[in-house]
Design a protein that fits this description.
Largest sheet of chain B: 2 strands, antiparallel
Number of helices of chain A: 15
Mean pLDDT of chain B: 93
Structural class of chain A: mainly alpha
Largest sheet of chain A: 2 strands, antiparallel
Number of strands of chain A: 9
Oligomer: heterodimer
Low-confidence stretches of chain A: none
Shape of chain B: globular
Distance between the termini of chain A: 49 Å
Strand order of the largest sheet of chain B: 1-2
Order of helices and strands of chain B: HHHHHHHHHHEEHHE
Number of strands of chain B: 3
Helix content of chain B: over 70%
Strand content of chain A: 5-15%
Distance between the termini of chain B: 50 Å
Shape of chain A: globular
Strand order of the largest sheet of chain A: 1-2
Radius of gyration of chain A: 24 Å
């Protein structure tokens, strides 16, 4: 068989492609639902026009993105069965439960209330209408919890037994599954990162308008809000990332070793964190590197004299435990994805910090910079906030899922053993090409539409009714 | 009570919900070129399902996830076996969903025409292929001892399944036009009514043939009874529509879809995926199901969630109960 028609390889590419693509829209949905809810709450409480304008404006960006999140999400739900049927048979008893819970408890909720929010402006009383966007926000966060709990099982299987007769994993403790320590650590990390991405989007849009000196009355508060949210969510993402790192070292030490491309077990100062390395592509030998001593020890164990196991030792351990085989992830992917995630994330927090300092009312430096020739570059940097944060997010997922390899479910099932045995390479190639073409086209259309809507800026509000003084509630339609 | 039976019931219920609800979305989408004389008409038609198509589609996601949790073997066999058919359904649902959202983003007629066409195709393809898929499930497909489907995509296109596809296509088309007639007024409503009568009669003929074939070849006593009930409600729907009782007509049509799906699931029971080559390889509610513990946990979740879902979705339909009119569309601002 032609190696290009290897169903395993093609299915992995398809899953990676469709999942990363889906996750471009998920953080915007989760983060923007919260943001829009906050703007609308500010409007309901203060009755200030600018908050209604911001609600409508960012609501519009949120909605252009929402449909894409929904339709690409169905693909995810189907793909386990379509491409990974042996995986589905093996873990369905355990893994299906959080997925079904997500649907029954969270996703229905989200899908129903988003419709009520979009089209309910003129049909629901103001307070109730506000409640629908909060319900959407809560639904989306809850939804994320169940999905992360399902994913955590693949990283660190808990709450199950293996039924030898049926050749599958069976759920024995739903509570253990839902409170998996990897889920408890990954959930805040993911959610704060989603908020960070949404904040990045707001800062990007606000900075674009402000750099052109337009829509000042709405975009100034938007920038301020966005920068604060970026700063807080970014800091919380970093902190929760630290606790996720600890959980990872305990459950998947190989992933941490792969993140560092560290082949030999190291202790204390030797357990250093390399900022940059030039070496052979697989990372087995290096030519040049910049390293911070002790940092890896601290990240992995929260002590300065901790021991971090290296790839070679772990590989030997795993061969003893699981039999002969290669238990090392693709090192250059994990190494660089981990670095880019951290670099982009830190740069993001730094951008927010500088932005907050410069936009302080009394900042003399800010006043000078914004009036001088540097101003253009400061705005340019701010406009890059969104791609920066989205990039960090994607790198994080690439790292955590590629770092899980060669396992599909850590220690239980290898990726190679999960693929559908009866789906041919040709069929997967057809679907991979179809998804690539459609997703690619839609990405272009989506980007243009969001850009157009964002550059248009907030709409002016209709005049209040001359007699009653009540603003005409707008009717919303497709 | 055996929880595998309970979950067979819940999954039946979820698919009934999906086909009754997204079924009329498909019909509304397919009716665009027949009923929409100008852009305002087409916007009226799309807006009849504007606030609800998304939650209707969610029934499919929940049905799929519930199948994964309660009958993983069924989920794995069905989804890997019908790979290309499901791929086409997925691509159609993607195109349909984004088209609703993108269509009004630009004013040019060419832009709108493109998305109108995608709505029609994105509605017609799943309406047909879901029938083909369920036709094949009822008919049985070749499975090996590991429950893997051993046929090809083209084996799915047998006469019985194709008839099932045409039946669901027509059923959903009529269902959708009845919904348009229920949710609009004036000239457009009259056109929808007339179209529903014509497509309704065609649906009766094709559905009668399909239900008869199902009953004779694969049916049990109860599935036969339900087929008969479905036939009666279908005829009632067409008659009610002819007399201008659009509420009754739509209700009877929804009942028809529900009874037809129920009849198909009952003709399966206790199999979930019969093997056409060797009955020993058939998937049943017993050998496809999750462990007793998982089913117990999921039953609790369903007991809490389902009443809530019905309540808030019912409320949504109540909020959007008013007819969509041309004046309403022309006076409103575009959503986003």
């Amino acid at each position: 068989m032609n190696e290009w028609l290897d169903p395993l390889l093609l299915s992995r590419w398809q899953f990676g492609l469709t999942t990363v693509y889906h996750f471009l829209f998920v953080p915007i949905t989760i983060g923007m639902a919260l943001t829009v809810a906050l703007f609308q709450t500010a409007w309901v409480r203060t009755d200030k026009e600018k908050y209604l304008q911001l609600t409508k404006f960012f609501g519009k960006l949120f909605l252009i993105n929402f449909a894409m999140g929904v339709v690409t999400g169905i693909v995810q739900e189907f793909q386990f069965g379509m491409n990974w049927s042996d995986y589905s048979r093996f873990v369905g008893d355990v893994f299906g439960a959080p997925l079904a819970m997500e649907g029954l408890l969270a996703f229905f909720f989200e899908a129903t209330f988003i419709g009520l929010w979009i089209f309910g402006w003129d049909k629901l009383p103001r307070g109730l209408h506000l409640a629908t966007i909060w319900a959407t926000a809560v639904g989306s966060v809850l939804s994320a919890y169940f999905i992360i709990a399902a994913n955590a099982f693949m990283q660190n299987p808990v709450g199950y037994d293996i039924n030898e007769a049926k050749g599958r994993a069976e759920l024995t403790d739903i509570w253990a599954l839902l409170t998996n320590k990897v889920a408890l650590a990954a959930f805040p990390h993911t959610i704060f990162a989603c908020f960070m991405v949404a904040a990045g989007l707001i800062v990007t849009v606000a900075a674009w308008h402000l750099s052109r000196n337009q829509h000042l009355d709405t975009m100034r508060p938007a920038l301020k809000f966005g920068l604060w949210m970026m700063m807080i969510a970014g800091a919380l993402t970093v902190l929760s990332g630290d606790s996720l790192g600890l959980a990872m070292v305990q459950t998947q030490p190989m992933k941490m070793a792969a993140a560092e491309a560290m082949y030999t077990t190291s202790t204390g100062a030797d357990a250093s964190f390399s900022i940059f390395t030039l070496g052979t592509p697989d990372g087995s030998s290096e030519l040049f590197s910049i390293r911070i001593p002790y940092l890896l020890s601290f990240l992995s164990t929260h002590t300065f004299d901790g021991t971090v196991e290296g790839i070679n030792d772990l590989q030997a351990q795993y061969v003893q435990l699981y039999g002969p085989g290669d238990y090392t992830p693709t090192i250059w992917v994990t190494y660089w994805a981990f670095r880019w995630m951290i670099a982009l994330g830190v740069l993001h927090v730094f951008t927010a910090f500088v932005g907050l300092v410069l936009t302080r009312k009394k900042s003399a430096l800010g006043a000078r910079l914004f009036s001088g020739r540097w101003s253009r570059w400061i705005w340019k940097a701010a406009i890059w906030s969104f791609p920066l944060s989205l990039g960090a997010m994607i790198m994080g997922w690439v790292f955590t899922e590629m770092g899980r390899q060669p396992w599909l479910v850590f220690g239980l099932l290898k990726t190679a053993d999960g693929v559908s045995p009866n789906v041919s390479g040709l069929e997967v190639l057809i679907s991979l090409i179809a998804f690539t073409l459609i997703y690619g086209t839609l990405a272009v259309v989506e980007f243009k539409l969001i850009k157009k809507a964002a550059q248009k800026g907030p709409d002016d509000l209709p005049e209040p009714h001359p007699e009653t003084g009540v603003r005409r509630q707008e009717t919303t339609v497709y | 009570m055996d929880l595998t039976i309970v979950w067979f019931g819940i999954i039946t219920f979820l698919f009934i919900g999906y086909f009754v609800l997204d079924g009329f979305d498909f019909g509304v989408g397919m009716s665009l070129p027949f009923l929409g004389k100008d852009d305002t008409d087409r916007r009226v038609i799309i807006n009849t399902i504007g606030p609800i198509w998304d939650l209707n589609e969610t029934w499919l996601i929940v049905a799929g996830a519930s199948m994964f949790a309660a009958f993983p073997e069924w989920y794995a066999t069905l989804f890997s076996g019908f790979y290309l058919a499901l791929l086409l359904i997925l691509l159609s649902l993607i195109l349909r969903g984004v088209s609703f959202e993108y269509r009004h983003q630009r004013p040019e007629a060419s832009w709108k025409r493109r998305f109108d066409a995608m709505i029609v195709v994105g509605s017609a393809v799943p309406a047909f292929l879901w029938g083909v898929a369920f036709g094949n499930i009822v008919r049985g497909v070749p499975l090996d001892a590991g429950f893997n489907y051993t046929g090809s995509f083209f084996d799915l296109l047998n006469p019985y399944a194709l008839l099932a596809g045409v039946t669901t296509l027509l059923l959903f088309f009529t269902h959708g036009t009845l919904f348009v007639s229920l949710k609009t007024d004036g000239e457009l409503q009259q056109r929808a009514r007339r179209l529903a009568t014509r497509s309704g009669i065609l649906t009766i003929v094709v559905a009668a043939a399909f239900l008869l074939w199902t009953t004779l070849a694969y049916g049990s006593f109860w599935s036969a009874v339900l087929s008969l009930v479905a036939a009666i409600t279908l005829i009632s729907a067409v008659l009610a529509n002819a007399r201008g009782r659009e509420g009754w007509a739509f209700g009877a049509m929804a009942a028809t879809v529900a009874f037809a799906v129920l009849s198909l699931f009952l003709s399966l029971f206790p199999d979930v995926m019969p093997a056409s080559n060797d009955p020993a390889n058939s998937l049943t509610i017993a050998n496809a199901s999750s462990s007793a513990y998982t089913l117990q946990v999921m039953t609790w979740v369903a007991l809490v969630a389902l009443p809530l879902i019905l309540a808030y979705q019912g409320w949504t339909y109540w909020v959007f109960r008013k007819r969509v009119t041309r004046a309403h569309i022309e006076g409103a601002q575009a959503a986003h």
